[in-house]
Every structure is written in C-alpha cells, then in structure tokens.
Specification:
three-stranded antiparallel beta sheet; binds 2-acetamido-2-deoxy-beta-D-glucopyranose; Thyroglobulin_1
Length: 773
C-alpha cells in the first residue's frame, strides 16, 4: 500500500468539492492551493505523534494539506488575545487552542461544536460522536446503532441533523446529497428552493428548481445521462415524468400552502403590517409536512401528513429547543411494528436521562445511548431530590449548556452551532422587576439603562436648568432633558421630560413607557366618571376612548397601528377600530381580510387570511352587521373624493382644492369638516354640532373635544357644565359662579388654585409654557 497515493487522491476530491461549494466561502481558509500540489505527509487522524498535536485538514503547505498542528488541549487555560503566530519550535508551548476548540468562557479551551474537529477531543467515555469528512466538516451521513434497529441520518456541514434518514441495513446507497444541497442553499438565504429529496435524503428522479426541470441521478442530483434540462412548463416532456406519480403540479400540497403564505406575507409587509402574525407552514425536503405546526402561542409536533402528534407541544418562547425527534420516532416505530422503549419529553424531544429496570442511561437527541450505568449522584456532588423527574438536567449535560465536561459523568454531542454572543432581543432575559420607585433620587428608569443597554435600569444626570456639557461624561443631562446652550432643558421629543416637571404645579402628567414613548392608554379622573384616551407614541391624543370603569381590556392597539401606518404615509388604511381603540373582529386592509384578535389584531386561531372578494366566507362575517360593503359611509365618501382628485391631477388640473372628508378609525365621520374656508365641529353622523366654527387657516389648532363631549355627556345622562371655546376646544380658564379653575384640552381639571389674572398654561404639561425651543 502506498500512502502517498491515497493521500493525493483524497486531496483531489477535496479540491473538487471546494470548487463546488464556491471559492468565496473557503478562500480565507485555503489560500492559493495550486491543483498540481500533492500532499505528501498525511498522518492518520489518530496518529499525531505528540500529545499536544492535533489533526487538521489545513495544517501544512499554506493550509493546503492535512497534517498535525500544535494546540492547547480541551480545558487548558488560553488567552483570547494571544498571538496567532504558530511556532515551529517544538520546545515552546502552543499558544492557541487546538483545531475544533475555541478559547471560550473563563479563558479555557472549549469545544466548538459547529466544527466537526471538536469530536476529536471528546473523551472515550462518550460512546458515539459524529464522523468528519476529509476536510474536517461533518460527514453528510451519520449512522447510529446496530444493523437491526440502527439508523442513519443526514447532517449539515455544521453538524445539525437535517431532513433524511434510513434504517441502517438499507442505507448502502444513501448519500444525503439532496438534503445537504437544500440545507446549503437555504443557509445562503434562498427560501424558495424546490428540490425534492427522497425520505433518505437522496434526490428524487424528477427535479425542478428556479424555473428549470431535469431528470436527476438519485445519488448526486446531476442530470441523468442522455437527458436534457427543460423550462418548467415543459416538465411533462421529460422521460422521468410519470403522470400517475407527478400529476399536473410539481409542488406538493404543503409546499403550495407555504408558498402562498410567503406571497401573502410579502404583500402584507409591503403595506406596512409588520405585527400581523401568520401561521407558518413548514415543509420537509420531500414536500411533506414539517415536524411542527405553530398555532397561536404554541407549537405542536406533527407527522408527515400534518396531523398532530399528541400530546407533544411547547410554547413559542421555547420553540428553538424543540426537535420532535422522539414524538416522530414513537409513531415511526409503531408503524414499523417495532418497540421503542424510550421516554419523550413534553415537547417531543427525547428525555436525555432514561431509566430502564432501575438503571440510568443517557441518550442523545436522536434517541441513541451515549452513556450507560450513569450514577444516581450528579457529578457536581449534589444529589437530586429522589422525586425529581429524571429529565431534569443534572445527570446528562448537553454540551452548549454545560461545557465543564471534565466533571460530567455523561456527555452528549448535540451538534448545534456554537451559541452566538447574546443580543438584546434574543437570548437575554431581563430578569428584573425594577420600578421607578426603586431608583435613587434624580435617577430615571429607562429601557436601556443596564447590561450594555439591553435591560431596564436607572440613569441619572444633570437636573433641569443645571449646567451641562455634552463632551464630559459626568456633565450629561438626565434622561428626558437635553443640553442646549450649556443648560439642561426639557426634551419634549421624549415622554420622559415630564418626569422633570414640577409635580406640585402641573395638574396631570401622562404615563410614559420605559423607552421614552407615551403609554397607549392615558386615564384621567376617578374610576366613576373618569375616562381613558388613546395616545400616539409621540404623545398626541388619537381616536379611542372609554369610561375609566370599562377600560380593563382597552389596549388602543388598533388606533396606535392606524396612526403609525398613516404617519408612514399610507392614506388608504382601512383597519376598523372599536370606540375604545381596540380591533373590530373583522378586518380588511390592502386587499386582504381576516378575523382579528380584539386586543392585538393578529389573525384569530384556526382562521385564515382571505382575498377581500371572499370576505363573506370568514367565520366572523355577520351579514346583519357587515352588510354588502366593508367600507362605512364616511370612508366610501372619502375614497370617492380621493378618486376624483386623482382624475383631476391626471388631467393636469392642479389648482382645484377639495374639502377633505376626515373619517374616524371606526369608519364614522371625523370630529370636524371643512366647508368654504370654515371648519365646523361634527358628530359621528357628519352633522354639525352647535355653532362651533373657525377659519380654516386655524385648522391645526382645532380638536373639537369640548364640542363632542357635550353630546357624549348628554348621551350618558351626565350634566355638562364646562365652557367650550368658539372653535369647539375646551377653554383652559373656567369660571363657575365665581369659582376659578383650569382644565386641559381633555376637559379635566388641573388646578383650582388660580388667580384672576393668572394664565392656566403653567398647570398644563403640554402647554406653550413648557415649550422652550
Ligand atoms: C408511474 O408511477 C406509478 C405509481 O408509482 C407506477 O405504478 C407506474 O409503474 C409508473 N409508470 C411508469 C411508466 O414508470
Ligand atoms: C349578527 O349581528 C347582529 C347585530 O349586531 C346580532 O344581533 C346577531 O346576533 C349577530 N349574529 C351572529 C350569528 O353573530
Ligand atoms: C395679578 O394681580 C395682582 C394684584 O391684583 C398682582 O399683584 C400680580 O402681580 C398680578 N399677576 C400677574 C401675573 O399679572
């Protein structure tokens, strides 16, 4: 046997696959390997001569050939800032972690499970580790167990189990080439791959992708000899086309559903509906149904036909940990007439620590034993309470969670990719019940106050009117203030400025969110006759109110949504809000209709989004209530006017002015209308209220809240005693039988301690008095 020849063969295969994968990805790793280069020294993986040397596919000849490199072993202290220069002096100690390891938490070398070479460092007590290919990547086919019950699975290059499996005794021709290809393409960001794999991860005979169809070799996916690729509309002319088998459509049922969902979602996102959630349909690489289905806030394990595998499910927050391997195997073994004597967790995963006849053993996520005769006691010397369920972590440590493998009695390579550094919105949980009251005097609770701006915390700074300097860290203004002319003044772009107002003077201060936006629901007065109103993020009152006592379920989510969409420039939003700013049950917008959750507006469980022409088929459609047209009277009139306007513009008539018809978010007429240069306050039916009016040049100052409240209070049977201004707004200064007091624009009293010649402005948080710019 001539080792050198074997080596160069392997090396050529290595280069060939490099070309396939694309030179960009591996270019940094393998610089300038001329194809004529032969790799003459090729030690077998186990045969590195010295204990601090480890096999690497890119060890020698500029990273072109495999060999042994020196590196720090698992568990050895390391330094992340160490020089990367590799030394050839055998006497010197290596400075970086060995291939497959990474200098991790606590500055010791830890397993990098995304790298298959990490398996070379796993202690012998672990009964199975994945196989690597000649380039040190995870091999596509990984086999487990014996010839009878053993199985082979397909793996991605990063060691994640992907679609495709077979019983071990039938896996001779299994290559996983199709599964690997799809996984690679999807990892590159292609979400419309339509390659079809067989259940064992090989290629189906007939393939279509990106508008082209061809007859494929099942092990490699290349065109079978003597056939040609054709445009997809000619697919039935291919020799591998079989009418009984393939029918009239290439996409399988699950795929059709998934694709139409993607299209629908795109349309929604284009129109600005970012928060509307859809039920995601996941499909496997053979076009069958994915391993779970998402319904509301839960995900349930499913079989290939989409039926649920009861009772296995989990909440969306823990979805990433769910693999449903055990749930699916249970059914698989049952259908195959075999016995599966292992226990599943509630989420359909295998219980890592299993027990049989009183003996404890560990299984990996695929259900194969990795350690037997596990002692009852945990390796950390703590004994579990005897009743504790066997699946509590503590006996079987999975690698990413508990890297202190030197102490573990039992150890599983879960080949998930290495855990990313935590980012604010993913893995960090801000475990904190901190309140403003917990902050020191002068400090303000904000959403980004601690942990690198990821979690809420108290922030202080210079107080109102104190001297400040933007360039000196301890001379910055407190949150809610800004430094202008070396003085801290109110920053009215954030709600937090109200925390600095003199609370003895200002009669009412709105609620803020920790991020500086205004709370959506702002309540005034007492629980008996008080009212709550909807506010925009930037502190403007928007559509939606209710009596305080009725507001437990009031979210203002619909009003907020519409306000936001309109600010983004969409003037054709047709979401319908209820009087209190929540969502009406039936919603249509951007050509689609759906049954909405009242509080969030998301699609109701078990219902779908339909094209607007089909809205009467929705379960929430009620002919008495909704009639023939989704748009209300005001909305239809407003739309008609916009169309006319468009026509005028199209003909070049620019100077014509039209009276805009403002509608409320519930489809009723807005608070005012403009006619012949005059603004009139109007009720919901479009009729004028009293004689409130003002020149249209003053339009921006008109809110008609007082005018409308005269009717609201009358309908509620409550006497209305406040004075309105001629424009329909509340007068700030009120006088009842000589008793002087101030109200704000919502008509709520802010002070009764006002002198006859005094202005009310300083008692009102958003008045001109506090506008310092
Ligand atoms: C077409 O597919 C059906 C169903 O799998 C099979 O029974 C039949 O033999 C196939 N016909 C040809 C010509 O291969
Ligand atoms: C339809 O709406 C009307 C009017 O609100 C109501 O009385 C009726 O109960 C509704 N019908 C159904 C089936 O919900
Ligand atoms: C209001 O009037 C009182 C006397 O009537 C006077 O002393 C005071 O300065 C006046 N205040 C203002 C703000 O004009």
């Amino acid at each position: 046997m001539t080792p050198a020849r074997i080596k160069s063969c392997t090396f050529q295969a290595f280069l060939a696959s490099l070309v396939l994968i694309g030179p960009i990805i591996l270019a940094q790793k393998v610089p300038n390997c001329a194809s004529t280069l032969g790799c003459f020294s090729f030690p077998a993986i186990t045969s590195c001569p010295s204990p601090d040397e480890f096999w690497s596919p890119t060890a020698v000849l500029g990273g072109c050939c495999p060999g042994c490199v020196r590196g720090l072993a698992l568990g050895t202290p390391c330094s992340t800032s160490a020089t990367t220069e590799t030394t050839t002096d055998a006497a010197e100690t290596p400075s970086t972690c060995a291939p497959g390891l990474v200098c991790g938490v606590g500055s010791v070398c830890r397993l990098n499970t995304g790298d298959c070479l990490s398996t070379h460092h796993v202690p012998d007590s672990i009964q199975w580790v994945p196989q690597c290919d000649s380039r040190g990547r995870y091999a596509p086919k990984q086999c487990r167990g014996d010839q009878i019950n053993g199985r082979c699975f397909c793996y991605s290059a990063e060691g994640k189990r992907i679609f495709g499996w077979s019983w071990r005794n039938r896996a001779q021709r299994m290559t996983c080439a199709c599964s690997r290809r799809r996984a690679d393409l999807e990892a590159e960001g292609r979400f419309d791959v339509t390659l079809h794999c067989t259940p064992d991860g090989n290629y189906e005979q007939l393939q279509c992708d990106q508008g082209v169809c061809w007859c494929a070799d099942s092990e490699t996916g290349t065109q079978t000899a003597g056939t040609r690729a054709v445009p997809e509309e000619l697919w039935s002319l291919l020799p591998c086309y079989n009418e009984t088998l393939h029918g009239v459509q290439y996409l399988r049922r699950c795929e059709s559903v998934a694709f139409s969902q993607i299209l629908q979602r795109k349309q929604f996102i284009i129109r600005g509906h970012r928060d509307v959630t859809f039920t995601d349909t996941l499909c496997e690489y053979d076009g069958s149904h994915g391993r779970y289905i998402i319904e509301g806030q839960e995900a349930a394990c499913t079989w290939h036909d989409g039926t649920k595998l009861n009772p296995y499910k989990t909440s969306l927050r823990t979805l990433s940990a769910m693999n449903c391997n055990c749930a699916r195997d249970e059914k698989l073994f049952m259908l195959a007439g075999r016995e599966m004597a292992l226990a599943c967790e509630g989420n359909g995963n295998y219980v890592p620590l299993q027990s049989r006849n009183g003996e404890l053993f560990c299984v990996d996520p695929d259900g194969y034993v990795v350690a037997e005769n596990v002692p009852e006691q945990t390796s950390f010397g703590k004994k579990l309470p005897p009743e504790s369920p066997p699946n509590t972590m503590g006996h079987c440590f999975t690698f990413p969670r508990e890297p202190l493998i030197l102490y573990c009695c039992c150890f599983i390579i879960t080949a998930t990719t290495a855990v990313d550094p935590p980012t604010c919105d993913s893995s960090y949980g801000c475990i904190s019940s901190i309140r403003q009251e917990d902050c020191a005097k002068g400090e303000i609770l904000i959403s980004s106050g601690s942990l690198n701006g990821c979690c809420p915390g108290c922030r202080g700074g210079r107080t109102y009117l104190a001297v400040c300097n933007l360039n000196i860290p301890d001379r910055l203004c407190a949150p809610g203030l800004k430094c202008v002319g070396r003085k801290c003044i109110y920053d009215r772009s954030t709600c937090l400025h109200t925390m600095h107002l003199d609370k003895d003077l200002v009669g009412w201060i709105p609620k803020c969110n920790l991020d500086g936006t205004y709370a959506a629901k702002q309540c005034r007065g007492d629980r008996l006759s008080g009212r709550c109103f909807c506010y925009s993020e930037d502190g403007k009152r928007i559509f939606g109110w209710d009596w305080y006592r009725n507001t437990e379920r009031m979210t203002c989510a619909c009003s907020r949504r519409r306000d936001k969409l309109e600010k983004e420039g969409r003037f054709d939003v047709t979401l319908h809000c209820t009087q209190n700013g929540n969502y009406e049950e039936l919603q249509c917008d951007s050509g689609l209709c759906w049954c909405a959750d009242e509080l969030t507006g998301s699609v109701q469980l078990g219902t779908t989004v339909v094209h607007e022409s089909l809205w009467e088929l929705l379960p929430c459609y009620n002919s008495t209530l909704h009639g023939e047209s989704y748009l209300r009277q005001c909305e239809s009139a407003a739309q008609a006017q916009k169309l006319i306007l468009k026509k005028f513009y199209a003909r070049g008539t620019v100077g014509v002015t039209f009276n805009e018809i403002p509608c409320d978010y519930d489809g009723a007429y807005g608070r005012y209308k403009v006619e012949n240069g005059v603004v009139y306050c109007t009720w919901r039916d479009g009729k004028k209220i009293g004689s409130f009016q003002i020149r249209s040049s003053m339009l921006s100052s008109v809110n008609c809240y007082c005018a409308r409240d005269t009717i609201i209070y009358r309908e509620a049977g409550i006497p209305f005693t406040l004075a309105c201004g001629g424009n329909g707004n509340y007068e700030y200064s009120q006088d009842q039988n000589g008793q002087l007091f101030c109200v704000d624009s919502d008509g709520f009293v802010v002070t009764t301690e006002v002198a006859p010649n005094e202005s009310c402005d300083k008692f009102i948080y958003n008045s001109a008095f506090y506008d310092e710019d």
